[in-house]
Structures are given as structure tokens and as C-alpha cells.
Sequence to fold (731 residues):
Amino acid sequence: MSAENAELLTLQDRYEQKYGFRDPENYVFKSRKGLSRAIVEEISLMKGEPEWMLEKRLQGYEHFIARPMPNWGPDLSVLDFNDIYYFVRATEGEGRSWDEVPDDIKRTFDRLGIPEAEQKFLAGVGAQYESEMVYHKVREDLEKQGVVFLGIEEGLRQHPDLFREYFGTIIPYNDNKFAALNTAVWSGGSFVYVPPGVEVQMPLQAYFRINTANMGQFERSLIIVDKGAKVHYVEGCTAPVYSTHSLHSGVIEIIVKEGADCRYTTIQNWANNVYNLVTQRARVYRNAKMAWVDGNLGSRLTMKYPSVYLMEEGAHGEILSVAFARHGQNQDAGGKALHLAPNTSSQIISKSISMEDGRSSYRGLVHVAPGATDSRSNVVCDALLLHEHSKTDTYPYIEINDNDVLIGHEASVTKVSEEQLFYLQSRGLSEDEANLMIVNGFIEPFVKELPMEYAVELNRLVALQMEGSVG
Amino acid sequence: MGAVLEICDLHAGVNGTPILKGVNLTVRQGEVHALMGPNGSGKSTLSFVLTGHPVYEVASGDILFNGESILDLEPDERSHLGLFMAFQYPVSIPGVTVANFLRTALNAHRKAKDPSDKGVSIPEFRRLMLDRMKFLQMDPSFAGRYLNDGFSGGEKKRAEILQMAVLQPKIAVMDETDSGLDIDAVRIVAEGVNKLVGPEMGVLVITHYQRILNYIPPQFVHVMYDGRIVESGGPELALKLEDEGYAPYEEKYGKVVTAP
Fold:
């Protein structure tokens, strides 16, 4: 075994200890591998969906088959769509209390600390295992105020009109190849509705877990924040490590109505065999605010560019992201802000860290439509390189079709300097501790946007990620 | 018995260029030494070699701390022994607050002494830090700023002294702490150092000018010239240098042409 392989294995061991445990598969249903029209129909049938949803799925399927693989970014040729399980049903239904969740699956979420966090500081929790949500619960007082936090399938069953009004309107089936795939085989995810004027003070959290090898997880979430309402949604993700690839391809659609405030936070820590190809987009209306807070630490390849479509005057969008790539990882992240109305504003702050031979890229778009006068956008992308062979790239696209706008773009690439390391070491920190401190300082502007519990968790994940670097 | 730092016939350089050409010097806990010399004489190199900067190579000679060679020790290990350097040009660490940094450094020291140490509790650390800051007449808001990031020259030097006050080294090297400071800033920084000097700490004050020594009176003064200590004496030697400058050494040993 080469030294490099040995190193990769020890990295996997560390992830394995904390998140990488596997459960036996006592599943209710597991589709055969591969994708076909029949599989799409089967999924729809098993979920007991209305006809219009099946039609949407099939539209997605046809478009997915017809559409070529995107070739403008990282290499996706190793993905074999015939070698993936598209639908795995782990339980009979979604529990409303943890007692209703099968013991072995509940144990998994216990090990990940989810029920404990629910008690302490969350307004609601959703837990997805393989293809479907196994648990969803929102605090009773919020439920009484009309806050809806359900598994996406339940959302469709209980709120068919609201669902149909918005589903696939923010990210249509033909938006991109992976949105088409998700439209065809989506399963799991959350449905959130916050009624006008209701402010949900504590976060709603969804936790996504893949257990099976060669699994495809296609979560689909729809979040509607009505006028003047406020919500913070947080998602976290882990999986066991397998030598073969898994695919996570989610689609998240968010509508932020007039004067509303929505924040969507992701702490992505997939195992390093997962391809994480996600489309996230929010439409933001008059004087409303949307923030994507996106931390990508895991996966083999992530391609993810959360977007804000600023639809009406006074809309504001923020995209704050941290990407951390180490050995064998490629984080292709960034964000898009589309200014489609006058007096809209956006801010994109991207922080990327590359260590060993990891590669991270910022890929972003700022678009100002004709007539979007007095719009303002500021983009800051900073890259930190820890080692000689670490890589970073920046692909900033700016399209401005109006003269009266204010657009700022700053980019920086920093290497951890010998002088910084020496300074910290001379104060008693080991080289690893010094590197960690520099990295933590670098992502501080991001971390301080997180609720305290997640800030602590992120710092812990970063420390785990950096353990035993090989230089 | 107090700690002793002994520098024995030390030859060192960078990229094959010799800079230190046989330095001998002993500093004991509780003593104040001044090391003076013109630019390029090797003063800063000595401080970097003492603390283990990886760019410098030691060709021969030794550095002993309490009789044991520290040449093979990493900079953090030297720090754990109780060796400290106040930098001439402190490095900024954006995003890391002074408080967070100090706590991490203090915990690293505690852990080095006792591997089972769980670290200082936050309330205990806060008390210690605020006490040290009060002692040095620093505004508590300083603790929340990012380390050396956007600090003025004087603030950087005071941050160095604060680190020294928290880590409580046995031997501290102060590398041109007075450089780039106006006279008021020198006085403030020196007052801070004076409060720390005592039987628990030995200091090697490296300086080009005599003025900081008005505030930190040394017991021993050494003149470094072209990589060697060419003269040692008491406080009167500093005054002599103030009057005569380094010209007599230039005449005696020739002009130094190496870059600093």
C-alpha cells in the first residue's frame, strides 16, 4: 500500500469513528440499482402521489436522459447512474415521537446527538434516513401558530394546494441535469410554511443520513416564509465511508415573501466518497431578506451555488460560504445573486481552505437586470492555502445591464506563512495547533453568523478535518 | 534554583551565510541584560536562533537551558521550558481574538507541564487576563480585538508584553521592543516590562538605542558587533555607547557590510 493510500485510510478511520458507523439494512423496500421510467413510476406509486406529481417526475426523467452532463466544471464522468440505488425505504412511516422510530435508526440519531439537541435548542427536528424522513416534529406552540414543518411527502398530502402552487416553480425540472434527476426521483426533505408575521426564534433542523453503499439521496425541500415571518432552517449531513460512490443531489426551493426573513444553514460533512450536487435557490420579494450560510467540509466533490433571485424592490440576499478541501476532495462552491428589481442588495462572502492536495473553487455570478437601478452587490472571496500542492481557483462572473449600480468584488489568496506559524509556535502552540488557529481565524467571519451550538460544532469539525495533516 | 540560559560559542546563519560568529552569553532568571549593537550585527538573528526559527541554521556551538541543549527542540517546546521572545515585528493573525489566542497559548503551556490538564476554565482565564491587563494599564476591549490585526506599532508591542505577562516566562528576549515607537510609547511599554521584571524573570533587552534602558535599567550590558559579543560591562557601558556610538568598534573591527 502506498503511503498516500495509508494516509487516506487513516483519514477515513477518523471520520469512521465519529460518523462512519453502519447499520444493518432491515429495510421495508430497496429498489433495484439503476434508473428507468419504471423506477420513477414505482417511487411515485409507493408514495401514493397525485397524477400531476407523477407527470412532473416523468418530465424530469425525460429531461435528465436527454440533457448532457455539464462540462463547465469538475469532472463528473466517474458517476455511473446505473450503479445507484434510487429509492430505499427504511421504515413504514414518519414518526412524530422518537418512540415511533425503529430502535436501530433511533440509535443512529442518538449517536449523532440529534434528540439531545432537539431538547436543548431547536424549534423542530426532521431526520432523514436513506430516502425518507423517519421523524418530524415541531414544537407545539409553533404548531398552534400555524407553523408547518413536515416531511415533504406529508406536506404534499396535507397541503396539496400550497404545494402545487410553488413546487418546481423556483427550480424548474429543466433547470439543470441534476435538478431534472431530482425532480424525477425526489424523496425526503422538508416542507416548511411559516404564516404571516410569525417569527420562529429557534432553528428548525433537518438531519440527513445515508447508510447504504451506492445510495442516491434526492432530498427535496420547499420552504415558504409568508409576509413578515421569520425562520432559520439548518441542515446537517453524514454517511458511512464506502469504497464506492454515493450521490446526494438535493433541490431546495425557498420563497421569502414581502418583509420576511429566512436563513438556511448547511453544515455538510458527507463522507469523502459522496458526490454532493445540490441546487438551492430562493426568490426574495419586497424588503425581504434571505441568507444562505453554507459550510462544506465533507464529500468527494461538492458542486453547490446557492442563489438569491431578488424579485422586488428592497430585497436583500446574502450568501456566506466556507469550503474546506483536503486530500482527495474538490469543493466547487460559490453563489449567485440575481438583481431583478431596483434597489436590491446582495453580499457574497466566500472563504475556502485547501490543504494537502485538496482543491476548492469559488464560482459565482452577480447579475443585474436592465432596470434594476440602484442595486448594490459586494463579493469577497478569500482563499487560504495550507500546503504547497493545495489548489484554489476563482471563477467570478459579473453581468451588469444597468448603469446606475454599485458592484464590488475583492478576491484574495493567502498562504499560511512560515512567520505566522513560527510566531504561534513560539508561544507554545504545536504546528498543528498553529495551523488550526490560523484556519479558525480565517473562517471567523463565517462562524460568527452561526448560532453558538453550530459554531462549536463547526470548529470541532474543522479540528477533526485538520487532524494529522501530512503537508 | 533559577533558570539559566547559556549561549556557548554559537555560530549560526541563514542560507549558508554566517551571521553569528561565536556568541557567548549567560542570562539567569532575575537578571536584566542589555544587548546593544549597530544594525546588521546579528542581534535579531540571535533572538530568532534562541527561539528556534526554522530558517536559521546553527553551524556549531550550543544553547543550553538549565544545562540541557535546546537546539533540537521545536519553538513550542522551547516556549514550554519558559523561553519567550517579544517580537520586533509581531505577526497578525486575522480572526483570532487576543483573548482566544492567550487562552490557547496558556493551555498549551499547562498541557506541556501536565498532559492530563484539562485547560484553564473560562472564568478563571478571564480573571487572570483582566488582572494582567489592569496591571499593564490596558483597556479590557483590547482582549476582543484580532491579534495584531490593524494594531498600531505601540499596540503591537503592548500585546507582546501582555503575552509575556500571561505566559510568565523564566527568560524573556525582547527584540528591539523600542523600535518604531515614539518616546511616550517606549515609556508605556517599558513600564509594563518593569512590572514583570523581578526574581521570577530574566530579561535580555536587545536594542539599538540606549533610550529604553533609561526605563529598564540593566545590570549587564553587552555590545554585539559582527556576530560576536565584543564587550561586556555594567550600566555605564550603555552610557558610554550613548556618547560615543558604535564608531570605536567600527575602527577596531572594521565596517560590517552584511545585511541584517
Chain B has two domains: 4-90+171-253, 94-150. The mean pLDDT of chain B is 92. DSSP finds eight helices and ten strands in chain B. The first helix of chain B runs from residue 43 to 51.
